[in-house]
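Here comes an entry:

___
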Amino acid sequence: MADTLVGLVRERAQAGGDGHAYGFLVDGEQDLRSVTYGELEQRAAAIGAMLGERVAPGGRVLLVFEPGLDFLTAFFGCLFAGVVAVPVYPPTPSRPEAGLASVARVAADCGAEAVLASPLTVALAEAAAGVAELRGLPWLVPDERPADAWRAPRVRPDSVAMLQYTSGSTGSPKGVVLRHRHLLGNLASMDWFTGRPATGTVVSWLPLYHDMGLIGTVLYPLFRGMSCYLMSPLHFLHRPLRWLELISRVGGTISGGPSFAYYLCTRRAEAISPDRLDLSSWEVAFNGAEPINLDVLRAFEAAFAPSGLRPGTVVGCYGLAEASLLVTGARRGEPRSTHVLRAELGEGKAVECDPGDPRAVELADAGGLPPGHDVRIVDAGSGRELPDGAVGEIWASAPSVADGYWRKPEETGAAFGARLPATDSSYLRTGDLGVMLDGRLFVTGRRKDVVIVRGRNVHPHDIERVAQQVDRRLRPGGGVAFSILGADGEGVALLQEVTTRDPEELRGLAAAITGAVLADQQVPVSRLYLVPPRSVLKTSSGKPRRSATRDALHNGEITILHTDGDVS
């Protein structure tokens, strides 16, 4: 197999140039546009020739595209030119200011030399001229020059293919340096995760500028020579069942997303007759949310079993941009969880117990290790490796782990240079907490997000999960819990989006939330904020940015509809 993505595209084109590569559902319903592997190579070569005239190999090029096939050909065109692709979230044309400010920060950080844009997004160039970091950058639209004008650059496995910018849940944006060998290494791990299928069809609505969407659902089908069908995240969010309808329409075998995607579909399951969907082809429904919500996954499988969805189809996995994507994965037919004693877990120990034990809490299984992967659980303070059953920071080593962050030596050293005694490998410090049991990883939370209440570790996602199950007027994925200091020490604050503004309803919801959290988690909510929809800040993949949302709240940037609590 080819040792670069450029070579991989060319191999696919030579082996079956007329074979379907990618399709995009333009309107989210019926208008399907497609490209073959041969056409993909031709378009990528044409864009590569154009870029080769403007940007030297190794230069950074921002990709500012709405979801669609143009983004894919532009991405591969960057690789064919030997330049570094830098996907960014496209600003909203109607209100470009905030989006352009984000693009400007990325441009300044990576030293961008050009912007590659679609005919639609290139209209932002005029507004970008008023942003200092973007002023003077050429905005280029792919042209139709002959592909034979392309001259292959010196692209090697160690060449930088892309910078994956991630805002993360707790920090400022950083560009993860991903080389061709990193990406191909992770695609091989994904092949293990999916069971190395001989044939298949990938379906996705995930954002193309994010690692799960780009690597997991665009590059993986290229790696396997499969067909891929895509739709816009906006079309999915507007009507989530479009995702399942596309799987049914094309016989999708691999697809997935965060827990909230399965939740949204489950809530709308009654809106579609079971016989209108055929999900029997679906073999791997991956769930890479942080954390995996087992209740949601079970409800999803039950809701769509009448449409042919088989038990055990939804499987958990764990990954992050710094590792390209996948670190561990649970495969079909393997156990999805284990039960441990709640009190001991709060003390940093996972003691397995019977599921029926009233003291039990269920942990989702993030799976085992692909070949070549090494995961250790480490005491973050001392750097000492912990045994099975002990909760600590997850450290990972794999061929797909990046070399570091673009031009950030201090952050790179802190995150990527971890060492363990008597080992030759360097490890990525993920910042996540987890435990290993019998060679399988169970993620328990973010180290930086953990709240310590009276000596007990409390994970924000547990508080958020309980609160959002109280009432349908509490938006799923629309809450963040964080630490707050009061007279008696550290406590838990919760900010939750609601769909009502009625004062009496707000008071009732507040009482129900605090009661539910206290009953389920044995932790009082020191302060509760009920806020309008879309108040919680999120990463490009939809994860809540807890620290950033907390800061926005404290800076008066979030409207508060109702508040309870006695912490000042």
